[in-house]
Amino acid sequence: MIALSLAEIASVVGGQTHDIPDPSAQVHGPVVIDSRQVKDGSLFAAFVGERVDGHDYADQAVRAGAVAVLAQRPVGVPAIIVEDVQTALGALARHVVRRLGATLVALTGSAGKTSTKDLIAQVLQRKAPTVFTPGSLNNEIGLPLTALTATEETKFLVLEMGARGIGHISYLTDLTPPQIGLVLNVGSAHIGEFGGREQIAQAKGELVEALPEEGAAILNADDPLVRAMASRTKAKVLLFGESGEADVRAENVRLTDSGQPAFLLHTPSGASEVTMRLYGEHHVSNALAAAAVAHELGMSASEIATALSEAGSLSRWRMEVTERPDGVTIVNDAYNANPESMRAALRALAAMGKGRRTWAVLGKMAELGDEALAEHDAVGRLAVRLNVGKLVAVGGREASWLQLGAYNEGSWGEESVHVSDAQAAVDLLRSELRPGDVVLVKASRSVGLESVAQALLDAEGEVAAR
Question: I want to staple 35 with a disulfide (CB 3.0 to 4.6 A). Which of 7, 57, 376, 397 is the partner?
């Protein structure tokens, strides 16, 4: 974080200093909400959670090196007292972003946000110092924490924005006003909360509405609901996709024998070949989105193509491919799941498993509301159509719908099985896996299926990660 005095911070957030002997003392370390992450010079923001009250850790934070605590009540150590810690954190982030003047790139979408954000960051880092959202910290707390890690050297700030309702993205763009806004897609993620895809589009489109006239809206030409957002912005519009009308597009898309996408990248500045290190054809759209951002910021087609070809996965449990010594390949994509990402992962599994036996270990897709039965059934059916060797559906009611969809599509019988929990899946796989098999593990985060992938890797001791 840029250095700010406690007096300046108090003024920015509308707070009162308390038990602070020297208001000129400077915060120069990160702003953190976990006392275990405090470093020398930090500001500790004391949030009240469902099970833990950060105020109880104020003394520990200061002893660990925090200059002060952002708190809602006196805590017996140097503190800036505010009415609401979340509001104050947002105000501090807004102040820092405006003071720095870095180019802010914001992105949203129903699927692929984190993977695309990681690609954008890796491409832009080749041009100038770049700060970006770690993992999926894309909400009203994670976003300002990321923005506050920027320094005077930061030229690009890449922020992922999530939404669970109308107005959420407007709130985030008010904290950190973007110059470039990217909308990836409008899918079924959280459809149970929003009520329909049109409502999701309304929420995601708040990003382009927040752009200045001199900014740029980067929209998916292949998604009609996203493309229609062009009418909601006063900024320049740049389209990406496989459509011939896209400004940044892909031609001759194919998968390598190992399931990695390759294509000819076209930008308004030229064309260049890309062969990605990531797995699955769905990453083509993500790469095009990243390329569009990079083009808008002045990078050439060849520079972008080189960066995309060398980019890897920066976030855990997203198509994380590891090969065991016995030749079994584990694909851990268990961070989260929705119908679009589940279909993409199954297609990637099918591509990776050519000539090999494939397993899809799948669990519940959460927050689908009235669409849950139909969507789980459809995923089970797709597994059959893609000739996945065996479906292992893990969990309760939703898992039974996955298994039933597969059974009804192909009368699979023993090729689809429903097990009660993660340990049952591990026991089944340990007894039946053989060298050369490819195993995909995927479900919504709440299911915790990453434990299945880890157990299968631990079973074989040392592994060689690709």
Answer: 57
Contacts by residues 229-233 (CB-CB < 8 Å, ≥ 24 positions apart): 229/183, 229/201, 229/204, 229/205, 232/205, 232/208, 233/181, 233/208, 233/209
Residue 264 in contact with residue 250, Cβ under 8 Å?
yes
**Residues across the chain:** 466
How do residues 89-144 score in pLDDT, each as one tens digit? 999 999 999 999 899 999 999 888 999 999 999 999 999 999 999 988 899 999 99
With beta carbons less than 8 A apart as the criterion, state whether 130 and 183 touch.
no
Tokens 């097990």 label which residue?
419
3-class secondary-structure state, position 345:
helix
Enter the tokens of residue 158.
């890449």
pLDDT score of 413: 52
> Which residue has tokens 């005077």?
152
∠ CA(350), CA(188), CA(365), 5° rounding? Answer: 65
| Measured distance CA(275)–CA(264) in Å, rounded | 9
Under 8 Å CB-to-CB from 181, ≥6 apart: which residues? 105, 106, 107, 173, 207, 208, 210, 211, 215, 216, 217, 218, 233, 235
As given in the structure block, the two tokens for residue 190 are: 């959280």
* Segment holding 139, helix H or strand E: none
Stretches where the chain sits below pLDDT 50 are 461-466
Task: State how beta strands 270-275 and 358-362 pair.
Answer: unpaired
Distance CA 373, CA 401 (A): 6
Retrieve residue 143's tokens.
Answer: 């976003």
d(CA 98, CA 85): 20
**CA nearest neighbour of 309 among 378, 355, 261, 248:** 261
Residue 198 half-sphere exposure, CB side, CA atoms within 13 Å? 0
Extended strands (E) in 22-148: 26-27, 31-32, 43-45, 68-71, 79-81, 103-108, 130-132
How far from 313 is each of 117, 135, 200, 278, 419, CA to CA, in Å? 10, 11, 27, 7, 30
Q: Are 3 and 26 in contact (CB under 8 A)?
A: yes
Q: Give pTM, 2 decimals.
A: 0.88
Q: What is the pLDDT of residues 199-222, one digit of tens each?
A: 999 999 999 999 999 999 999 999
